[in-house]
Design goal:
Blueprint (H helix, E strand, L loop, with lengths): L1 H14 L11 H8 L6 E6 L7 H11 L3 E8 L1 H5 L5 E5 L6 E5 H25 L3 E6 L4 H13 L2
Parallel strand pairs: 1-2, 2-5
Antiparallel strand pairs: 3-4
Length: 155
């Protein structure tokens, strides 16, 4: 029953959340983490596309505050597979830098780089004992969260 109630509360918060702009993890969030005095569950939902390692620093600080950390690494199908053909101008969502690429010629290298990026995120999570789950944006996040909470309840 507690797991269902927790899920309902989390879903209510997520229903009003809106993604947008670049990822900015600043002193406000780090300051909030410092105020945590009791053990708890921190849920981090991010694509981890930051210009520096602030997202990983957030995980380290949560771990130092003895928080159990659940990470949903959120990526779209397009980000994972590069399903396009022909030439495209690709823009870095964080920096705004643009480069022209031939999707067909670049796909294998792109997927290798994305795989390495995902592996780095997973390894950083492992260092702080965070539960890492990669979730595609076309998959319902609520299903992944509920499955995690139900598994956690049986531990």
């Amino acid at each position: 029953a507690a797991t269902r109630q927790q899920a309902v509360e989390i879903f209510a918060l997520l229903a009003n959340a809106r993604a947008g702009g670049s990822t900015q993890i600043g002193s406000d969030l780090f300051g909030l983490v410092q105020t945590l005095t009791r053990r708890g569950l921190a849920i981090v939902i991010s694509d981890f596309f930051t210009a520096d390692d602030t997202a990983f620093e957030l995980l380290r600080r949560l771990h130092a505050q003895r928080q159990e950390i659940l990470v949903f690494h959120l990526l779209s199908r397009e980000e994972l597979e590069l399903p396009y053909t022909g030439e495209y101008i690709m823009e870095d969502a964080e920096t705004g830098a643009e480069v022209v690429v031939n999707a067909d010629a670049f796909r294998e290298e792109y997927q290798r780089r994305v795989g390495a990026f995902c592996e780095r995120v997973r390894e950083e999570c492992q260092k702080v004992e965070a539960d890492y789950h990669r979730v595609r944006t076309d998959e319902p996040l609520d299903r992944a969260l509920l499955a995690y909470l139900e598994r956690r309840q049986h531990l």
